[in-house]
Design goal:
single chain, alpha+beta, HIT family, subunit A, 8-stranded antiparallel sheet, 11 strands
Amino acid sequence: MFPLMFISSNLTEFKILFAEKLRTMLSPDELGAFILVLANSMQDKQSQESLKDDVLAMFVELNNKHNNGELKGTDDDLSVFEKIREKGIGKLSIWETIEQGEWDLLFNPMRGLRPARASSEKVETIFREFDSVKFHFNKPFLRPEILWEGEWENIQLRVLYNKFPFSPFHLIIVPEAEKKMPQYLVKQYHELIWRIVEEQSGNLPGFGVGYNSLGACASVNHLHFQSFIQKNTLPIEKSLWQHNGGRHEYPMYCVKTTSINECWAVIEKLHKDNRPYNLLYRPGCCYILPRKMQGSESVAERVRGAGWIEGCGVFNVASKNYARNLTAEFLYSDLKSLSIQN
């Protein structure tokens, strides 16, 4: 039996589609799209080389419009573009992973330009009604940022690029977007994501999905998941940790489940307790990270905006100098400050 189609039938086709769709988004009238394309092109050498000439040509056009006072965009986009001009687009290097003990520091200059969003707010509940006035994934201006739309198990999926990616081939998966569901997981979509990750492990090796609940640094209150493709294990997946059968205690309380139903039972209990959490779906398993509520004063400042990727042991940094000052002990302590007691 062939797996159901999700974006592409194989990794080579996926990478071609990923790059070519980015190229078509470039326009002198779409500043936000330019920032998105630039940020996604910096993830590796191949992506950078594939898009470099088009990105630089568009930067020149946009810069000329800026100098003539004709550049239009949101306040956030104009601010980011100004930072790109100040830094110099040629000085924005590709991502680089720096190992620090058991943790990964991802040197990601564009991520450092991202404006603060709702992930910096103080939150008291993991459920909030959907608000069509606030940012959500049905906004008309997001249409060009859609990589793929289609059905999977008779459920309509919308897959968009992440404007400031922090994982390889980072995408946003929005199930049944038109239903306008808040960022509050229900069993149907938990099971959907579990099966997608399991089935696509053959088509897209390294495929995984992360999830932030409200109160755990979800920045958009519209039901969505974040996918990525990374063959290398994330720090949370290493065999030394107790949740993987090892001897060492992970700094955050972590539940690893290999049953779709047992996993949901844990999530359901977190919902009843109004407990925020992050998830990592990998083929045949899910890592669940209950945590302190976003905005808690007892959380270390460095991880107050941490989502699922930091919970999994990957820390995005915008400066190599900053990275040199982060020891493995500091990072362990930071994650521990997010954790709850078993």
